[in-house]
UniProtKB/TrEMBL annotation:
UniProt KW Cell membrane keyword: yes
Subcellular location: Cell membrane
GO biological process: transmembrane transport
Family listed: Belongs to the binding-protein-dependent transport system permease family.
Keyword S-adenosyl-L-methionine listed: no
Predominant cellular place of this UniProt entry's protein: membrane
Coiled coil: none
Protein name from the UniProt record: Multiple sugar transport system permease protein
Matches recorded under InterPro entries: ABC_transporter_permease, MetI-like, MetI-like_sf
Assigned GO CC terms: plasma membrane
Listed CDD domains: TM_PBP2
Domain named ABC transmembrane type-1: residues: 68-283
Gene3D superfamilies: MetI-like
Length: 296
């Protein structure tokens, strides 16, 4: 009887959050899948079923392909920059600084993660400014001419990667620190007795033990990077101030098709493609880390 009451309490306690999760998270996914099969717009009453026509149009849409290319470059750039840097900083904080200073460094690194996106992006926009930015002022000391970073087709993408990595770094460092602090110290002590150096301890103990943590950080960072919006919206404005025109990304392209061109079905097809890409890459990361664990 007691177990039945406990089960009833658990079910009643989970009923509300699970219902909200289904309504807010699960149902919109299925609704997006449904909308992607229709020529759906906000104005017209006639919303015919078109099957896979929206997806076929995506293949030949240069704007979508440009957005997909830019988003993929940014996502992998953020991943490649954030993971090694976060792991290195976490190891440095864990093994080189005392516990008293550790909290200071952790807080300092985490602040960019909680700062509002628009003010942070505006601050970085000032940093990269061609005339008044401190980056060009610093490079000018070494005789390097000023660059219009945010108006260059390549450097503007690099600027977005830097901003996204700066925001993601603090969270990744904290997660890696938690993983490092859960590694048994006896492993390091045994390695040192065998004459292992600090680098060898990090390579052969820390990195393998952190594999599940690295997988989590990698997946979370990649998903966030593929869904970037505000960074491109604020940083990559054209000379007339139109937001997000120099670096077109998928989420911005979806919003433009939905609310400016009223092509909701077409934008839903873009969202489905983005979901499929994220799911595929997430599954690929699980397989990659599992295979590495099996080989060891």
């Amino acid at each position: 009887m007691k177990k039945r009451r406990q089960l009833g309490f658990v079910i009643s306690a989970l009923a509300v959050p699970l219902t909200l999760f289904v309504l807010v998270r699960v149902m919109p996914i299925f609704e997006t899948l449904r909308l992607s099969l229709f020529k759906w717009d906000i104005i017209s009453k006639n919303k015919p079923f078109v099957g896979l026509a929206n997806f076929q149009e995506l293949v030949g849409d240069p704007l979508f392909l440009e957005a997909l290319r830019n988003t993929t470059i940014i996502a992998f750039g953020v991943l490649a920059l954030t993971i090694p840097l976060a792991l290195g900083l976490a190891a440095l904080i864990q093994h080189r600084f005392g516990s008293a200073l550790s909290g200071f460094y952790e807080t300092s690194l985490f602040i960019p993660h909680i700062v509002s996106l628009v003010p942070a992006a505006m601050a970085w926009k000032w940093v990269f400014d061609a005339q008044l930015g401190p980056l060009n002022a610093f490079l000018g000391i070494f005789g390097i001419p000023a660059q219009a970073w945010l108006f260059h087709p390549v450097w503007s993408i690099v600027c977005i990667i830097v901003l996204c990595s700066w925001q993601a770094l603090g969270y990744a460092v904290l997660i890696f620190l938690i993983g490092l602090r859960n590694i048994s110290t006896s492993l390091y002590e045994a390695a040192r007795l065998d004459g292992a150096t600090a680098w060898e301890c990090f390579r052969y103990i820390s990195i393998p033990q952190l594999r599940p943590v690295t997988l989590y950080v990698s997946v979370v960072t990649m998903i966030a990077a593929f869904n970037i919006y505000g960074q491109a919206f604020v940083l990559a404005s054209d000379s007339q101030g139109a937001p997000g025109k120099l670096v077109r990304v998928l989420v911005l392209d979806m919003l433009e098709n939905s609310f400016r061109n009223y092509r909701v079905g077409y934008a839903a097809a873009e969202a489905v493609v983005l979901l499929a890409i994220v799911l595929f890459l997430t599954a690929g990361q699980f397989v990659f880390f599992r295979d590495k664990a099996a080989r060891r």
